[in-house]
Amino acid sequence: MKRLWPFALLVVLGALLFWGLRRGDPSALPSVLVGKPAPDFTLPAFAPYRAEWGERIQLSRYLGQKPILVNLWASWCVPCRDEAPMLEAAWRQYKNRLLILGVNVQDTNPGAALGFIQEFGLTFPSGIDENGRVWIDYGGYGVPETFLIGKDGKVLYRHAGPLDPATLQELLGKVL
Amino acid sequence: MSYVAPPRSSKTSWRTTYAVRRIAALLLLLACSFPPLAFAQPAANTPPPDFSPQVFEIARELRCPVCQGESVAESNSGISLEMRRIIAEQLAQGKNKEQIKAYFVSRYGPWILYEPPRAGLTLWVWLAPLVGVALIGAGLYFYLQSARRRALEAGAAEVSEEELRRAEAELDQS
Predict the structure, then answer these.
(1) What ipTM goes with this model?
(2) pLDDT, tens digit, for every residue of A104-136?
(3) CB 3.0 to 4.6 Å from A148: which of A87, A157, B6, B98, for a disulfide?
(4) Which member of B68, B82, B105 has the closest CB to residue A136?
(5) SS3 content of chain A, % helix, strand, coil (to 5)
(6) Is the backbone of residue A105 left (phi > 0), alpha (psi -120 to 50) or beta?
(7) Distance CA B142, CA A162 (A)
């Protein structure tokens, strides 16, 4: 009986290891903002959007009217290039029922960001998070990140990393 | 700034410029061989002089969101610089360390704290090494005790009278 103890201990340790390995992606960070009111921000709009959206885009002006998809992007971010056409397509399709708002973060070169907008012909409004405070307010730890804000103004979901068409459809399905 | 070519009308003037260039090159080489003299750099591991040491004391306890393996005090990423700026601003507003840390925790969750909190589930992270050392110590203590007991028992039984006598005789000789 006494000899079985080390084996029992090994089995327990092995089970613990197996459980730890199957816990999923440890670097995926749940947002503490989910279920809370979306932090407000006011950002200078990029030149192409000033005529329609004004010099500065303020989130709280649009909260409570439609669900909002806030996408944090940067011109140097490679996965953002895959996302941009998808977001643009979603914007064209659901414009009347959903607001897509781009927030340009961690871009030291505004010219490059403007080039990105022109390259993909993005028509949904984007503003510049000049000092990165909006990114910090939203607990950002990478680019891209996408926040879904419900009609009640509360954060429903945060997706860290690039969106794929299925994830985007799933997100939109929650609010449309 | 435009570069003006030295006059090359006569041989002497060409030679003097050549000599001057050679001395200049030598001086440059000398300067480069003494990097501390050539480039006055701050000593390693001292915080950059942009904020007070108090800012860095708090920044050391926060995780850089984009680099994750570095604290906000060590990282030079844009977001860490901005976080140090926020810490400096909030200190100027009279907030204390716990309030500033809570500001970041309310945005990122406890993940932003560079060291896991010494409470709740993460308390085990701190206790596990102590428990491990205690277990190994206890195991070693009991093993050595039983080993000593076994050695004493075996030793008393196995040394014969003959061997003892021989050993004593050898000791007397030396």
Answers:
(1) 0.84
(2) 998 888 789 999 999 999 999 999 998 899 999
(3) A157
(4) B82
(5) 40, 20, 40
(6) beta
(7) 56
